[in-house]
Every structure is written in C-alpha cells, then in structure tokens.
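Handout, page 2. Input:
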Amino acid sequence: MATHISGRATVAVDAYVFRRVYIKLQMYRYYSK
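Output:
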C-alpha cells in the first residue's frame, strides 16, 4: 500500500514538473520570436 501511494505521489510530481518545464519552453519559444 505504501508503494502504491508513493507511486501516485511520484506521478503527481512528474506531472507537475513536466507542466512547469513545458510552460517555460512555450514562453521561451514565444519570446524568442
């Protein structure tokens, strides 16, 4: 059960980091034009 909870937490963190990196990438491409 602990493994399942930590797994879900890891997925949530990965999704959060991915969103932040993706937004930074979009902003960089937008301002570089």
